[in-house]
Amino acid sequence: MSNIALPIQGATTSPIDTHAVQQHSIPKTNVQEKTPVIERNQFYYDVLAGLNASQKHLSPKYFYDESGSHYFDQICALDEYYPYKTELTLLPEVASTLAKNLQGQFALVEFGAGSLLKVKPLLNEIDGIHRFMPIDISGEHLVSACEQLQQEYQSLEVAPTVADFTQPLALDGFHGLQPLGFFPGSTIGNFTPDEAAGFLQNVRNILGPDSYLLIGVDTKKSPRTLHRAYNDQMGITAKFNLNILHRINRHFDSRLDVADFEHYAFYNTSEGRIEMHLVSRKAHNIVLDETIIHFDEGESIHTESSYKYSPQDFQTLAAKTGWQIDQAWMAQGDMFSMYLLKNAVH
Ligand SMILES: C[S@@+](CC[C@H](N)C(=O)[O-])C[C@H]1O[C@@H](n2cnc3c(N)ncnc32)[C@H](O)[C@@H]1O
Q1: Is residue 164 a contact partner of residue 21, using CB atoms and an 8 Å limit?
Q2: Residue nearest (by alpha carbon) to ligand 1 atom 12
């Protein structure tokens, strides 16, 4: 099998950033090599910097190791977690409209691809997709999802990239096909509005001229519905959130008792975002290698924001990043939106 090793991406700015990125090229019939992202040093640096900040914080990208990806799949199966089901219900309609309106031969590039379930309606409807290039930070999970997808879509060329899409990213070319980006799951909401603008500009540069981007964006809605979605009764979201502490214990020589923290999620109306935190149940110190970090009782680590966008908010964001809204879809009850963006810069 041909396996393309990319140069290390996003690794030149920090002396301890040795984040290595592997690109797996999956032949049509066989997938064998699985090289996880080697990320210890970057993780180590980010955890120490985040836990030493005045508002302690950790990046949500660190939720997604093998366990985190499985917890996310379990969240998607929950009744309370409307974004997943709503977008999945909307997608066949979106895909059939795209099949009618988008003529050409496409390389589909999915950002934050997860378990690859949302791409299927697109693959089923749009005959012109020949190459599928999913990108995800959760390497083992991505490669195993690609193996399954390859079995189902044998003529599709599947070329996954295990990478952090917040870092500079060089893809392995589109092989003469027109780039069609796909960014479902409202993962855009995990960025602050400024970060989201930077990301969308970056995606436009990665995909280049004549590209499109299909993006799923969660909408503003009743705080009650939002609260339920991030505080499920079975406590799966809590496990997903707390998994980041287990991950710290795996990476550091640490004495961190996960039971000393609890999941807390609420809708911050003025910011228009869900905030997830891990709240210390008591005043205590944790030790990470040689570093001691103090927590007051009730002090929190901010682990994720999930910004919600009205159509007007999103239109403003898209316009300032060089994307033009070509088509828009809104799920029943204005529960979730999807947009087809066209690169407006030539
Ligand atoms: C909210 S989940 C969405 C998964 C899937 N796209 C869906 O819609 O159900 C976010 C996905 O993005 C991936 N991800 C998060 N941060 C990332 C980053 N910085 N670089 C690459 N992938 C990332 C996660 O591993 C996860 O699969």
Answers
A1: yes
A2: 112
Q: Which amino acid is at 134?
A: P
Closest approach atom of ligand 1 to CA 72 = 2
Q: Are 304 and 276 in contact (CB under 8 A)?
A: yes
**Pocket lined around ligand 1, Cβ cut-off 6 Å:** 61, 64, 69, 72, 76, 84, 112-114, 118, 135-138, 164-166, 184-185, 187
Distance 183 CA to ligand 1 centre (A): 9
How many of the other CB atoms lie within 10 Å of CB of 221? Answer: 17
- Whole-structure pTM value: 0.90
H or E segment at 98?
helix 82-101
- 184-228: pLDDT as tens digits: 999 999 999 999 999 999 999 999 999 999 999 999 999 999 999
- Is residue 136 within 8 Å of residue 114, measured between CB atoms? yes
| Residue ranges matching CATH 3.40.50.150 in the chain | 22-35+82-219+310-343
Closest-CA residue, ligand 1 atom 18, reads 164
Q: Has domain 22-35+82-219+310-343 been given CATH number 3.90.25.10?
A: no
Q: In this predicted model, what pLDDT tens digit does every residue of 48-104 receive, in sequence order?
A: 999 999 999 999 999 999 999 999 999 999 999 999 999 999 999 999 999 999 999
Q: Residue 16, Cα to own-chain centre: how many angstroms?
A: 24
Dist. CA 133 → ligand 1 center (Å):
14
Residue nearest to atom 11 of ligand 1 (CA): 112
Identify which has the larger pLDDT, 42 or 60.
60
Give the residue, by CA position, lying nearest to ligand 1 atom 8: 185
Rounded distance between C-alpha atoms, residue 243 and residue 301, angstroms: 13
d(CA 117, CA 190): 20
